[in-house]
Amino acid sequence: MLNIKNLSVSYGRKVALTVPKLSINKGEIIGVMGKSGSGKSTLVNSCLGLIPFKGQVRIDTNDVGILMQEQHYVDTMTNQKMIEGMLNTRIKRDKKLAELIDFFDFSSQLSLHFKNLSGGQKQRMSLIMVLYQEPELLFLDEMTTGLDFESRQALISQLKIYFKQHQTTVLMVTHYAQEIEALADKLLVIHDGQVKAFDEPQNLFKQYIGYSAFIVDNRTEKSIKVQQPEDEYKVARRLIDNGDDFRRTQSDIELVYTEVMKGQRS
Ligand SMILES: Nc1ncnc2c1ncn2[C@@H]1O[C@H](COP(=O)(O)OP(=O)(O)OP(=O)(O)O)[C@@H](O)[C@H]1O
């Protein structure tokens, strides 16, 4: 669905991003993580052709959607008028739109103005308009930044259902490991303009963390690395005997990310 070859983006003399090769298959959801200034937005912007770049970016569809962190709309009309105007349709007569509004629980916000919506409601409204166009490929750039925990959780679970139903291919940039854990098939870690890791979380977990790990919750939050199932049993036994509250994890994104970033220059 998206193929990148020898991509290089520079701002003036500074090379901000180089990606020798990257392929995203149809229906895959890719979560992109990296520090501020690492090149995440540069990746999205070059894929969208919004900035000049060298190399190849091939997108196998014309139905591309994008949702950035902040949206600005005119504020002279209600949300309903704006949605209907921008999509050139009427909610009453448009089953697809009515269903989306229902899905994102937006009916009671239709009579309001955009500026009076909460951050989560603003994101929902933008999503309704983006998803109405049934993009095959969707770019999400920090769509839940600034949302409170509950709004983020709600949005993530709605999107999880939606993406599954529609087999949308998604590249989402986020600072929240939890978002990737809930939605992404693969994790892409960018640091200093370079791809440091790109694979399914469980593969990266095996590579960077080991066979499995126990996180001792409540007390220490320390992770214990184990390489073999037998070791896992021994560690579990010890933790149980100590009365510790722990959980087993094989795809903890935060652990993987921390491990990938170890040894990288800041
Ligand atoms: N228009 C620009 N002109 C010059 N330098 C830029 C421009 N846009 C980005 N950069 C630089 O390129 C690098 C990558 O920026 P980018 O916006 O892609 O990072 P990011 O990972 O998306 O950061 P954040 O998480 O803060 O959004 C940074 O060093 C940034 O300062």
From TrEMBL:
Signal peptide: none annotated. One of its GO terms (molecular function) is ATP binding. The keyword Nucleotide-binding applies. Keywords: ATP-binding, Hydrolase, Nucleotide-binding, Transport. SMART domains: AAA. Residues 2-217 form the ABC transporter domain. The keyword Heme does not apply. Pfam families: ABC_tran (PF00005). Its EC number is 3.6.3.-. SUPFAM superfamilies: P-loop containing nucleoside triphosphate hydrolases. Belongs to the ABC transporter superfamily. This is Energy-coupling factor transporter ATP-binding protein EcfA2. It comes from Leuconostoc suionicum. The gene is ecfA2_1.
